[in-house]
Write a structure and sequence with these properties.
The protein has about 200 residues and is of the alpha/beta class. It has nine helices and five strands. The chain has a single domain, classed as P-loop containing nucleotide triphosphate hydrolases (Rossmann fold, 3-Layer(aba) Sandwich). The termini are close together.
């Protein structure tokens, strides 16, 4: 069985799909809990990841100020060190057996492995995305729209910062699934089939 690495639009149900796949396959699932694994291996400095994880690359000026703020002399920037620690942890967990990874550029980190399925999950129906956000985040439609735009922008910027690639470029993925056409259950079944090929 292959590992699964998912990038997803906010409100597309990508996280839910990943959880269903992991549960059905009986394999480990990593999203924000990946940061706990980084901390176990690299110590307290990795706690800073919680502050910057998939959020902190929202603007170029902020990125520059953060990178400059954590660099000292000729030492490697702390921000870049944290990125290395995340990538190293993803590779190590993958080597230990199939897993499901959500976000954190795992699709790019594992791109050279032949036993990883790299997937982008999106929804072409904005109303369905907003409805899902309203339900999962317990917010108004107006707040859901703002959250959707902000989170997608942050994920796009995070992906570009660490990979120098466009988050939505089809060339980054083996498969794309549209949850406006497919339920999360159908997506999970498709992915389980592909992971076992």
């Amino acid at each position: 069985m292959k590992s699964l690495a998912i990038e997803r639009e906010f409100g597309s149900g990508g996280r839910e799909v990943g959880m269903k796949v992991a549960k059905e396959a009986g394999i480990s699932y990593y999203d924000s809990n990946l940061l706990d694994k980084v901390t176990e291996r690299y110590g307290d400095s990795a706690h800073m990841l919680n502050v910057y994880d998939e959020k902190w690359t929202g603007s170029l000026l902020f990125n520059i100020s953060m990178a400059a703020g954590y660099s000292q002399g000729n030492e490697q920037s702390k921000v870049y060190q944290m990125g290395y620690e995340v990538a190293d942890t993803i590779k190590r967990l993958h080597r230990n057996g199939p897993c499901v990874f959500i976000g954190r550029c795992a699709t790019d980190i594992l791109k050279d492995t032949n036993n990883t399925l790299r997937v982008f999950i999106y929804s072409s129906d904005e109303k369905k995305r907003i409805k899902r956000i309203v339900e999962t985040e317990n917010v108004s439609e107006a707040e859901a729209r703002k959250m959707m735009d902000k989170r997608d922008r942050a994920r796009r910027n995070y992906f570009r910062f660490w990979t120098q690639k466009d988050w939505a470029d089809r060339g980054n993925y083996d498969l794309e699934l549209n949850t406006s056409m497919l339920s999360t259950e159908e997506c999970a079944r498709i992915l389980l089939y592909a992971m076992n090929k």
